Amino acid sequence: MTVSSQRGGPDAASARVAAVSVTARARPSGWFRTQTSRRLGFGYLLLAPAILYVLLLVGVPFLFSLYLAMSDANVGDPVASFVGLENFRAALESDVFYLALRNSILFTVVSAVLKGFLGTTLAFLLLQPFWGRKFIRGLVVIPFTLPISISVLSWKWMYDSQFSVINWFLSRIGLIGAYGSPDWPVWLGQPYWAIAACILVNVWRTFPFSAIVLLAGFTSVPNEVLDAARVDGTTFMQRFRHVVVPMIAPILLIGFLFDTVFTLSDLSIVYLLTQGGPANATKILPVLAYQVGIQSGALGRGAAISLFLFPLLLPLMILMLRNLRRREI
Amino acid sequence: MTDSQLLLTGHASVSRRRFLKVTGTGVTGASLLTMLQARQAPAQIKGTTLRILQWSHFIPAYDAWYDKFAKEWGDKNGVKVRVDHIPHLDIPARMAAEFAAGAGHDIIYNGSSILTRLYYKNLVDLTDVADTAGKKYGGWIPAAKSLVEVEGRWHGLPIFYILAPMLYRKDLFDANNLKYPDTWELARVSARTLKPKGHPTGIALSQCADANLFWRSMFFSFGGTEADPSGANPTLDSKELREFLKFAKAIFDEGMTPEVFSWDDASDNRYLASGVACWVHDAISAYRTTEDTNPPVFKNTFLALEPQGLPGKRVSVAAPNVWMVWKFSKNQQAAKEFLAHLIDNDLEGMVQSRGYNMPYLNDRYKKPMPVIGTDPKLQILQDFPKIVAFYGYPGPSTTPIQEIVNTFIFPDMVTRVCRGKESLEDSIKWGVGEYRRIYAKHKQA
Description:
The complex is a heterodimer.
Chain A: H1 3-6, H2 12-26, H3 28-31, H4 35-69, H5 86-92, H6 95-127, H7 133-140, H8 142-145, H9 148-158, H10 165-172, H11 191-219, H12 223-231, H13 236-264, H14 268-273, H15 285-295, H16 299-307, H17 309-328
Helix pairs in contact in A: 4-16, 5-16, 6-11, 6-13, 11-13, 13-17, 15-16
Chain B: H1 3-9, H2 16-38, E1 49-55, H3 60-77, E2 80-86, H4 91-101, E3 107-111, H5 116-119, H6 127-136, H7 145-148, E4 149-150, E5 153-154, E6 157-162, E7 166-169, H8 170-175, H9 184-194, H10 209-221, H11 239-255, H12 267-273, E8 279-281, H13 285-293, H14 295-299, E9 301-304, E10 316-317, E11 319-325, H15 332-344, H16 346-352, E12 388-389, H17 399-406, H18 409-419, H19 424-444
Parallel strand pairs in B: 1-2, 1-3, 10-12
Antiparallel strand pairs in B: 3-11, 4-5, 6-11, 7-8, 7-9
Helix pairs in contact in B: 9-11, 11-18, 12-13, 17-19, 18-19
């Protein structure tokens, strides 16, 4: 140990390394010719399209919406002035905004729970060997592949206040009275039924996706591991909770992440079924943002309303991605 | 020498640039006026392309006619015409996209939601076309200019609007000794009488265009107004509003069912066609649907003028339709020519739409009008132009009114009252508060 190192300073060996690195830094052209730099450069080159894609299609629109949210932009005027947080304040002054925020959270959480339950059940059912399994697996994804406008309009017809096939069926089997009786449900007319009806369409449309994601996860769990758990005397629920779920957690988390983002930003179902009515009972943030920003032309306020989704999603995303990273390590 | 220099020096001399500018504008304007009057397309438009964005009409036959009509005009004038049809609810989004891109269609259609005031700086001034048509056909009906006039210039051309009369079941009315619904009070009495007999009435109380239109008709007929004549200030908060809302609550409780909370724009058509409704307040699409699907009910379905709220006060809020031309259009001249030709043929459009499209020009109301003048039950529609109004009555269709319409504030306020979960004053406080908030935001912007 040298004197300098005893005093906390660099020793001679460190000084030599530093000198070498300084020399190396002084000749960058040499470093660029090394095998390592070429491999690194090639790696970044391969990554470049993905980075460019994310920057152009995610980063730029996000920054642009931030700019819009802090301006008085409207659809008919290309020149906008900076208004700071005024548009966010305007949103917070409106009762309709709070209703839309509450409904967005309710819509996303209830949908996620139902999709998780139904998706898991369906995935287990599709895992079992039975005649026509491949055909059934193909059938279950139909709701997900149908154009959303067509499927939602079909549901709208099923929820019709007068000709609802659901009501007529329930009436025929004696569960509700005839058309015109007080217990005849008006699915899209009563606030709680209306939001439940919208959630049901979302669940019907996307739970097959959850099931397929889970199915892919379940099939990746080695049979040996499950057999070993069985030998140890575990029940089905114990195997599911302590063996299957931890093993497919990354798939589950990514699936959940996608589903949350898609559900929270889903405009079509509510817009086509109710446009947010009756009296804003089904209004969600994307619908309100569209009505204010595009239909009414107040782009700045519309962008601010839609950006309220961001602080809702961001902590969730960070938590899930951090959890995912820990599992990978 | 610039114009300002000319002013400062007081010289009366005219620069070469100014001379060319003034004479050029004059010659162009004069030739356009001559062409518009002579209805002869100029040679310059030959070989050009005209792109039109159009809604999908409720009457498909109209779309078929319109496409053929546009093509024939194009063939005659050497212009390649392309017509695209999209649902009218998608038009605001498409318009925003085209404006942002600075490219798209030359002519763009607005239905129900008229966005002239949002885009007027970017729309071609069509005052010359409007003036020519006005002179030729006895002037425009009073409500027309409120849709398109901004700062004294017309930035769009209203070509037709859609009326909403009362459609009632004469057989049910006669069987129960009810007077036909010439006033809202009579309409209420009939609904109160017929609902217990299985024939309620209904006006949509949901977030759809019908709810925006028809409850306003009732409100305005009760003497209420939405904004002052300049359109600058909301005038919702009034004793007329209170009277109207009390009446709305009564007519809902006595004559309607909760089904109206879930209705879309076609629900009342089905309600009438199914034989359930004693009356509906709707466009004649309900009449046509009934004609096509239930002839016995159709036989007994009659039309009435907009009911009076206050004695002698009838205001019928109609769904407007307007055509505009983008400033970025490279074929503005052909666009103007085509629109002038479309106005000349608006009566043919009325025929093709089975009487659905009502013209905005006074001379078109010479009786008998096509389709509606020859059908005894529809003849009453010929008397509507004097009582027609649009959103924002008696003011113009301003940007705050568009936001109020697009966010369904007015029908939501009525819904809150009819649901009865809060007091009348609380519902008014909410509605008036939303109006003031939106007006304040637009003033600030």
